[in-house]
């Protein structure tokens, strides 16, 4: 762990100098970015907040994780979460069906919250990540890159699939005393999705700037080198 940073340079007129700066998102202190070893992170001297970390290995796994999460998300919403057998009557429901049932029971606000936190926001983040990572795999800059990165950071706190998963498990335990409860395919898929999303959330989307600009810097350096 690297707990110190080089102070910001005095001359900030050049784009290269600005690119080498990093600001603490907690106290707004500005430092000059330095290279950290794999597994290390740079911390702010003023407040101790994390400035950035070396995450090249995580970045290489990010696109496969996003695609896996999208597949699991489709499965989680296409199949029943749980099946309940009560006195010979079998009832199955999907996540969208649960949202519709809440709305039909005059709980519109709860239905909107469940839809937003378990369907809309997680799906939006995964689609935005895929929109960025697919072109970047070919060393191309996606249109609206900066706005998408900011959008990911703003929507990330509102994705609460893990909270929904805990609520479903608690409900299943309580219902098991009254009826036969059979976990559906979507429940297992949701469990796997929570794990994949946790791995995705460990990556700071701000680091995508570095991986986008690294190939461009290498290409520029190669053009500047004299040919033999």
Features:
single chain; 228 residues; alpha+beta; three-stranded antiparallel β-sheet; 8 helices; 8 strands; disordered N terminus
Can you describe what's shown?
This protein is α+β, with helices and mostly antiparallel strands. The chain folds into 2 domains: 1-54, no CATH class; 57-214. Helices cover 56% and strands 13% of the residues. It has 8 helices and 8 strands. The strands form 3 sheets. The protein has a 3-stranded antiparallel beta sheet. The chain has a 3-stranded antiparallel beta sheet with strand order 7-6-8. Helix 2 packs antiparallel against helix 7 and helix 4 runs antiparallel to helix 5 (145-155). The radius of gyration is 23 Å and the shape is elongated. Mean pLDDT is 76; it is low at 1-6 and 215-228.
The total number of structural domains is 2
Going by helix content, strand content and strand pairing, the class is alpha+beta
Summed over residues and divided by their number, the pLDDT gives a mean of 76
Strand content: 5-15%
Question: How many extended strands?
Answer: 8
| Widest β-sheet, arrangement of strands | 1-3-2
Q: What is the helix fraction of residues, given as a range? A: 55-70%
Q: Give the count of helical stretches.
A: 8
Give the C-alpha Rg: 23 Å
Low-pLDDT windows of residues:
1-6, 215-228
Distance between the termini: 41 Å
Write down the overall geometry.
elongated
Q: Major beta sheet, specifics? A: 3 strands, antiparallel
How do the SSEs run, as a string of H and E? Answer: EHEEEEHEEHHHHEHH
């Amino acid at each position: 762990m690297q707990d110190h940073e080089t102070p910001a340079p005095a001359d900030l007129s050049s784009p290269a100098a600005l690119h080498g700066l990093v600001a603490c998102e907690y106290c707004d202190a500005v430092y000059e970015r330095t290279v950290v070893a794999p597994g290390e992170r740079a911390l702010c001297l003023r407040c101790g907040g994390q400035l950035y970390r070396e995450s090249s290995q995580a970045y290489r796994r990010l696109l496969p994780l996003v695609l896996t999460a999208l597949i699991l998300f489709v499965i989680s919403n296409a199949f029943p979460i749980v099946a309940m057998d009560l006195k010979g009557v079998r009832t199955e429901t999907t996540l969208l069906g649960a949202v519709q049932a809440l709305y039909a029971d005059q709980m519109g606000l709860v239905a909107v919250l469940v839809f937003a936190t378990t369907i809309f926001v997680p799906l939006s983040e995964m689609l935005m990540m895929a929109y960025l990572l697919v072109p970047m795999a070919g060393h191309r800059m996606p249109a609206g890159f900066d706005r998408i990165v900011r959008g990911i950071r703003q929507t990330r706190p509102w994705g609460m699939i893990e909270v929904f998963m805990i609520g479903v498990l608690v409900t299943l335990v309580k219902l098991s005393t009254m009826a036969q409860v059979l976990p559906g395919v979507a429940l297992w898929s949701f469990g796997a999705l929570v794990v994949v999303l946790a791995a995705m959330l460990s990556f700071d989307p701000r680091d995508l700037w570095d991986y986008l600009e690294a190939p461009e810097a290498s290409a520029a350096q190669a053009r500047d080198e004299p040919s033999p």
